[in-house]
Amino acid sequence: MPLSPDPTTPLPAFAARATSIGGSPIRDILALTARPGVISFAGGLPAPELFDTEGLRAAYEAAFTESAGRALQYSTTEGAPELRAAVAARTTNRGLPTGPDDVLITTGSQQALSLLTTTLVEPGDTVLVENPTYLAALQGFGLAGARVIPVPCDEDGILPDALEELVRAHRPKLLYCIPTFQNPTGRTLPANRRAAVAETAARLGLWLVEDDPYGDLRFEGADVPWLAAHPGAEDRTALLGSFSKIMAPGLRLGWLRAPAALRRAAAVAKQAADLHTSTVDQLAAAHYLAQADLDAHIATVRTAYRTRRDALLAGLGTALPPGSSWNHPEGGMFVWARLPEGHDATALLKSAIARDVAFVPGAPFHTGTPDPRTLRLSFTTHTPQEITEGLRRLAAAA
Ligand code: PMP
């Protein structure tokens, strides 16, 4: 007779961490706004019509033609040498000298974040974050059992004095930040504050995780050097990059640039996570970088996004209730707005969805007490005409 478990014996419970954090409320909103006809400022998606489909098709073709056996085979955990070299060259060109060995290719920069968390964070460790910050980072730190403490921020981002006070009081393992065109706020941390953050980290002993998926999407103003490039940060910063916003997110290609010991530990964590990132996708990206002009493509994307950002900024004054405020990001994908006293973004979203327009309330991005008056608007996936129509609907909802 086959062995069957006693039907009265309950199954062992899920790990506490699996039930300690909820799913992303933003994914729930995205599901609601996926209906045809909805003009959504909610998603954080790049514009699909701008993908260089033909260039990527040719790059995949080249990866197969050169050696299908290699493209379809297992490969090394650190990543394809030609892709590591190309990422290192791009990083060096942007002002941070980097060799191929400094780079670990990851399955999206999201994986780099998760590998760093595995490598650095014990349950109960303190992690500092900007407030508000990227939701999937909060989920990752939550799953690791971290104590997440928000660093007070103003319209330019982290307040260095407040950071210093928190580091002294809580002895955190790391600071996670998105210094350029932050998600969700679109903010960019000025160079003098980056210098202060790097100096504090070096003096008080702190890892820095600099997440930069948006930095290439600058429409105006001058580039600000990476946090990783400031004195004091060199030996303690993990810089995360991604092809998601400049090539295509479906490739799931990102990277981690980190000091040797941290990078090696992250590579061991990656072996346990997925052995290595898809070989064929890495080789296609390497061919794309060798045979297409990624910078020309990025310039096209920037021009389109700039026009879309301008359409959003031009119409927000009539779309949001009088007394609302919002920022003017110099790049990236997001505008951050705040409704006047007495208003609530989640309530506004309900009437907005009824009028086929959507955005994301800012509350879930906060650690600690949320600000219910805030909201994030993404300007990337609609034409200026659609954006104007979306804002007309938003005005009706408000
Ligand atoms: N970090 C930030 C701040 C993001 O906004 C995102 C994606 N929205 C990611 C990391 C993950 O990007 P990917 O894994 O596609 O590289």
CATH class of the largest domain: Alpha Beta
Taken as a percent bin, the fraction of beta residues is 5-15%
Low-confidence residue ranges? none
**Euclidean distance between termini CA atoms:** 67 Å
Q: What coarse outline follows from CA principal-axis ratios?
A: globular
Average pLDDT, all residues: 95
Helix fraction bin: 40-55%
Q: How many separate helices?
A: 13
Helix and strand pattern: HHEHHEHEHEEEHEHEEEHHHEEHEEEH
Number of strands: 15
CATH topology title of the largest domain: Aspartate Aminotransferase, domain 2
Oligomer state equals single chain
The structural class is alpha/beta
Largest sheet: 7 strands, mixed
Rg, nearest Å? 22 Å
Query: Looking at this structure, what is the CATH superfamily of the largest domain?
Result: Type I PLP-dependent aspartate aminotransferase-like (Major domain)
Q: Largest sheet, order of strands side by side?
A: 2-10-9-8-7-3-4
Structurally, how many domains make up the residues?
2
Ligand inventory reads: 4'-deoxy-4'-aminopyridoxal-5'-phosphate
